[in-house]
Amino acid sequence: MMDDLTTAEAAARLGVKRATLYAYVSRGLLRRRVALDGRTSLFDAAEVDAFRTRRRRIAEGELDAVVSTGLTHVADGELRVRGRSLIEMADSGMSYEDAVDWLWGDVGGEWVLPSGTEAAVCRAQSALPEAIPLTGRLRVTTAVVAALDPLRFDLSPVAVHKAGRGLLLAMVAGLSPQTAAPDSPSIPLASALWSCLSPTMAGTRQTGALDTALTLLVDHGLAASTVAARVAASVRADPYSIVTAGLGVVGGGLHGAASGAVHRLLAAASDASGLAGAVGDTQRRTGGDVPGFGHKIYRTEDPRYQALMSRVDAAWSEDPRLPMVHELRELVGSRTDAVPNVDLALGSLTWLAGMHPDAGEAVFAIARTAGWIAHGLEEMTEAPLRFRPRARYIGPRW
Fold it and tell me: What is the reported pLDDT for 185?
């Protein structure tokens, strides 16, 4: 049974007057219910405490906004897409393409690379410096595909889904212009992506692990890059611009690029300093944090970690480097209460697969492109231009 507070108790706990408390109710910030006597208002103590914490964060400068979505539910230890557990979807072997179809609510859509797109993307990629980051190549590919699509401003779901599937295939093709593009549904996107990112031959377990990573990363609620995508959609940007907005944010070290730091830590540990030394060097640079651990939402478990790590364990069970990944988890776990997150599993995958350290960021960005498109379409059902926060000027007075 919930712990109830009276109006006076709730107002006292928040340090406000009764009128202010009821103003919160009228604005939808708090809920009240009527007691059995039909007169007394009651408030859930846990909800009041949570609101007090949010209000404190706002006072300290943190933005706090609530955006309704019917796409993805993210809670501590739980991740659902359109009502289905994404973990169970991945565990069942659902491919990334099928996960995208489910997220978009468009099962059975055709995955086809538009005619002439591969050649144009490859020409553009060939002109770039070899050392350009992989996510830089994804941005170039997105710009090229947008330029080739005369109907890019058609914002109907059918048109956007078709553009999105073509863009995802082009993104993979653009990472390795010498590799045949996955222009047919018979070629799994994960298999084509492996050929672009890894110099090693892969078995079904290795490509299956990569496919699982893509599926688990398809969407994660209102992550920073997704918010950027929704802002673009709120001004009715075309789908390529929506994806470009997401790509501009995803490369942050605290977002899509985090797996690269895990990869580099494992590589350093295996090359010279040993695991403890590599972790210590990393903590010295980061002020004590270890990449692959901790999460803003998940306090007890990032459910994506074990779902992906189990596939990594199976795919590289005979690899003598695999125990180092588990030693890393045990070492950090013995010193901190930070839980491992999906970046630990993704960085481990790219390291064991012999990929470039930035490969995880590219995997993340390609996977999340589907999520950005889904949120973009959902945002277009809302009133336009609604992302316009008010600024409180604190600069010098004139």
Answer: 46
